[in-house]
Design a protein that fits this description.
single chain, about 260 residues, mainly alpha
């Protein structure tokens, strides 16, 4: 796979159109396989679709457009998993099956998709699945790919975090587990985001800074998640959340992050 970023606007547009074409083609076959209850074929096509997100040729803006297309198509797979759960299937066996996908990036997207349904099924504690997923995301260390797969994790699990009054509280975990999950995701995303600044030549520094500005909202969504937790009151925020956030911001020694 080519590793250099396509430079001109026309090259970017061509690369994006090619990738979107592959995604739409594979998504069509994935949905047809799901209609035929051919789960293994559906996973193969889903994996091929997600593999387009392995590209290093797109700018953050164009990568985001491709990511959103994949995100929307994965909703069909999530609906299939929901139907399987409601039909009495074991989510643990499906979760295990998905782990045999070859490349790390599609494997993580598939695991997060089934993992969100696994949490919803309550066949395993939410805290265990959340911890498993956030830890496995460390397998992607490319800054752009890592930021977006962690954003996908945040998006799919945002309504499944153990919290005061939540259906996932109790046997599924506590608000402390949710705080740990969100903060760990935030800290890892910030590290990836800061690392972008040190890639490539010095003369492209300003370009990288502009690209980082385009991606800062992805990192910030984790802080939004924390503010939405009912169990994070002022006392918890001051004693638990703020010290860990400040420690990361100071230690990264990055002006844009600070």
């Amino acid at each position: 796979m080519q590793s250099s970023l396509a430079t001109t606007q026309s090259e970017q547009g061509q690369r994006l159109d090619e990738a979107k074409g592959v995604v739409k083609h594979q998504a069509f076959h994935m949905k047809r396989a799901l209609d035929q209850n051919d789960f293994r074929a559906a996973l193969r096509h889903a994996s091929s679709m997600i593999c387009e997100l392995r590209t290093s040729l797109l700018s953050p803006k164009n990568y985001y457009e491709l990511y959103m297309l994949v995100f929307d198509e994965l909703r069909h797979l999530e609906s299939f998993f929901l139907d399987e759960w409601k039909g009495g299937k074991s989510m643990a066996s499906l979760y295990e099956l998905v782990q045999h996908s070859g490349n790390i990036l599609p494997r993580l997207y598939l695991l997060i998709t089934i993992g969100s349904v696994y949490i919803r099924s309550k066949q395993a504690p939410a805290r265990d699945i959340l911890k498993d997923l956030v830890e496995m995301c460390r397998g992607v260390q490319h800054p752009t790919r890592g930021l977006f797969v962690r954003n996908y994790l945040s998006q799919l699990c945002k309504d499944k975090l153990p919290d005061f009054g939540s259906e996932y509280e109790g046997p599924g975990g506590t608000v402390r587990d949710s705080i740990d999950f969100v903060l760990q995701n935030f800290l890892e995303m910030n590290k990836l985001w800061v690392r972008m600044q040190h890639q490539g030549s010095v003369k492209l520094r300003e370009k990288r800074e502009r690209e980082r500005e385009q991606l800062k909202l992805l990192v910030g969504t984790n802080l939004v998640r924390l503010s939405q937790l009912e169990g994070v009151d002022l006392n918890v925020y001051k004693q638990t959340v703020l010290p860990r956030v400040l420690e990361q911001v100071v230690s990264c020694k990055d002006v844009i992050a600070q």
